[in-house]
Amino acid sequence: MSTTRPGRFELEELIALAAAAGNLEALNEYADWLGNGVTGQALLDDWKFYEASKNNGQEKQLTPLTFADLAKLYPDLNPPVIDGLLRQGETCNLISAPKIGKSWLAYDLALSIVTGRCWLEAFPCKAGPVLLVDNELHPATVVHRIPKVAEALGLDPFEYQNNLDVLAIRGKGITLDALGAVVSRLGDDFYRAVILDAWYRFIPPGTSENDNAAMMGLYNTLDRYSARMKAAWIVIHHSSKGGQGEKAVTDVGAGAGAQSRAADAHLVLRPHEEDQCVVLEAAVRSFPPVQPIGLRWQFPVWTRAWTLDTGALKGRKTRSEERQDQRDTEGLDAIRKALTDGPLTTRQIRAAAGISKDRAERLLDILTIEGVVRWEPTTIRGGTGRLYHLNQPGTSPGTSPGTHTRPGVP
């Protein structure tokens, strides 16, 4: 075996060349470099599948078509797997903060698809087999959890046990790329959906989830898998740190923005002001916009909370706070505009900006701390006041250069 290991993209080219030549010895060597249980034969089988796909006409997709011809080739959308959210061959992110219960929700989703139920009393599912690929829990934990969810949903074991497959790979180090060796052995057009739990463990070592190009590459891989198996692929991911209430749906999710843009459906669970409650929101590509729905945690399942105010998210500002923020923004802009013509006292700023004394002092303190303005003592009608200057970019916050007066202290 060579002692010099090629880079990832060079290795992909070498695999393609070796597969085209039928060089199983070289493929076994490359498989050893990939690790994670990949075999040379699996790499060869995978290559043969893609070559067969090309010969079946997929290369024509690289040739521009008139819209009329395109419409003849694709007269219908792919059939829904989760009506209103996700279709066959599409990819989906299911995102929430860690330990909030998204894996339990994924079990509910898997069982809903297996049995053709309506998920969360909102989204009808097309019945079919589901594959759960779990790289986070021990097999015994999965076996312990799923029957609890099934029982809470009123399902008997015979309704789901033979149509829910589980690939438990915790500790095996199988990344998304290495999963291709597994995919190559699975039947095409058999699974209705594949669920990956959890996404962060499928990211190859050395790959940053904040790297847009790398994440786009991984979602391209997901697209290849989903197209090959004609299944919907759902990845369970965690949200970024901090409050999520003020973020757009597509911004909830740790890592690069490509993760939300590349997926066909982006589902997020946001904490609600009420304990044990969340709001499910979605951004979808091939369905009409989805209205938020409230959910309440009643172990071991999430249930619809029909009367929950879906706008009352934890961390989201009230309408009154939003109005106050808007007024403050307008006031801060008015002060900056007033100071563009030269230094002004507090009284002069109030007159120019049209704001009250208390509000002017509060906003000027904000601008001083942020380094937008500085002030120096001045004598006004025999008393001491402040003369405010608009700082140039790069000026330190506080009073005039050379002074040591704390901001906001006369």
Protein described:
The protein is elongated, with a radius of gyration of 29 Å. It contains twelve helices and 16 strands. It is an alpha/beta fold. Strands 7-6-8-9-3-10-11-12-13 form a nine-stranded mixed β-sheet. The termini are far apart. The C terminus is likely disordered. 33% of the residues are buried. The chain has three domains: 66 residues, no CATH class; 225 residues, P-loop containing nucleotide triphosphate hydrolases (Rossmann fold, 3-Layer(aba) Sandwich), CATH 3.40.50; 72 residues, Arc Repressor Mutant, subunit A (Orthogonal Bundle), CATH 1.10.10. α5 crosses α6.
Secondary-structure topology with pairs:
Elements: H1 8-21, H2 24-34, H3 40-55, H4 67-73, E1 80-82, E2 86-87, E3 91-96, H5 102-115, E4 118-119, E5 123-124, E6 130-134, H6 139-152, E7 164-168, H7 179-183, E8 193-197, H8 212-229, E9 232-238, H9 258-262, E10 265-271, E11 277-284, E12 293-298, E13 301-304, H10 319-339, E14 344-345, H11 346-353, H12 357-369, E15 373-380, E16 383-390
Parallel strand pairs: 3-9, 3-10, 6-7, 6-8, 8-9
Antiparallel strand pairs: 1-2, 4-5, 10-11, 11-12, 12-13, 14-16, 15-16
